[in-house]
Write a structure and sequence with these properties.
With about 100 residues, this protein is an alpha+beta fold. Helices cover about 45% and strands about 15% of the residues.
Length: about 100
């Protein structure tokens, strides 16, 4: 949830599932989202952001600069990025072995 460009809450997958199983589907998001969450910084390493997101069971990390939302990183996209980087490194290693 964003209020005047400030991220004030996020809805985790776990809280969403809990809300759908224990509450009405018409429950407002603000009643089930978490207000304690981490954020990523634009200059931060992707691997560091991915590790923190996984540790907190977050499926996304708001990217914040000077307290303002500038983007979102999903754990799925970060995992894909890391996998692509690993494949490119492996390819470079194979090509230089010739």
């Amino acid at each position: 949830m964003v209020d005047q460009d400030q991220v004030v809450g996020v809805l985790t997958r776990r809280r969403l599932i809990e809300a759908l199983t224990r509450r009405s589907p018409t429950t407002p998001v603000r009643e089930v989202m978490t207000f304690q969450f981490d954020v990523a910084r634009p200059e931060e390493l992707v691997e560091d952001a991915l590790a923190r997101g996984r540790a907190q069971e977050l499926q996304l990390l708001p990217v914040v600069r000077e307290g303002r939302l500038v983007g979102l990183l999903t754990v799925e996209n970060l995992s894909e990025y890391v996998a692509i980087q690993a494949a490119l490194r492996e390819r470079q290693t194979s090509v230089s072995a010739y």
